[in-house]
Write a structure and sequence with these properties.
Glucose Oxidase, domain 1, 9-stranded mixed β-sheet, 3 helices, about 25% strand, globular, binds (2S)-2-amino-4-(2-aminophenyl)-4-oxobutanoic acid, binds zinc ion, hydrolase, EC 3.5.1.9, KFase/CYL, metal-binding
Length: about 210
């Protein structure tokens, strides 16, 4: 029997990765290089915690929330439903969703891009209406994921969608790359790093074919 197929749904991280406006630079550097005196190459990274494909920790939108290192991992691992939301406008609204498909799913990933913008920041990315989050939460969702940089619009001061997530103690993945993924059910694996005090963490997110 062949191994189940996997899809890498993560952005690549480099100095070219588009970042939220005002965030500090993402740098990958070489600290030491192989030479007569040094037997190895050693690198270092400096990156905003919301770079690329990442998991928000509750600490991001609540001062009482847990940091990445202290979050349970169950939400980030298990069956998920990938949804085609490319027809949505500025926000994914209640009527954009096929509720028979997603209600009761523990993890829901929304695709909004036809082609993910790897080369430029998109300030008009699609957000998610708070009542959509609330309905998924009330039906038992553990995690909401999206291929845009945030569940709330870039100019939001109130972070309403994030606060609906907080009310259900759900978790969030942002910046997913779903270009090559057909809608349907998969296994999600996207674990945040155990960074103490961190309000988010980059993840290597993958989907795996269900048995
Ligand atoms: N830098 C900001 C400034 C103001 C409001 C939001 C942000 C965010 O970074 C949002 C974030 N990336 C998110 O997890 O939705
Ligand atoms: Zn974020
Ligand atoms: Zn967020």
């Amino acid at each position: 029997m062949s191994d189940p197929r996997i899809w890498d749904i993560s952005q690549r991280l480099s100095s070219n990765t588009p970042l939220w406006p005002g965030e500090p630079e993402l740098k990958v550097s070489r600290h030491a290089s192989i030479s007569a005196e040094c037997p190895v190459n050693i690198g270092a990274i400096s990156l905003p915690l919301h770079s690329g494909t990442h998991a928000d920790a509750p600490l991001h939108y609540s001062s009482d929330g847990v940091a990445s290192a202290d979050s349970p991992l169950e939400p980030y691992l298990g069956r998920c439903m990938v949804v085609d939301a490319r027809a949505s406008g500025a926000r994914i609204e209640m009527q954009d969703c096929d509720w028979s498909e997603i209600e009761g799913e523990e993890r829901v990933l929304f695709r909004t891009y036809g082609k993910f913008p790897h080369d430029a920041w998109d300030e008009n990315f699609t957000a998610v209406a708070p009542d959509v989050i609330a309905r998924l939460r009330d039906a038992g969702a553990l995690l909401i994921g999206i291929d845009t940089p945030s569940l709330d619009p870039q100019n939001s001061k109130t972070m309403d969608a994030h606060h609906e997530v907080l009310q259900g103690d759900m978790r969030i993945l942002e910046g997913l790359v779903l270009d090559d993924v057909a809608p349907g059910a998969y296994e999600l694996i996207a674990l945040p790093l155990a960074i103490e005090g961190a309000d988010a963490s980059p993840v290597r997110a993958i989907l795996r074919e269900l048995p």
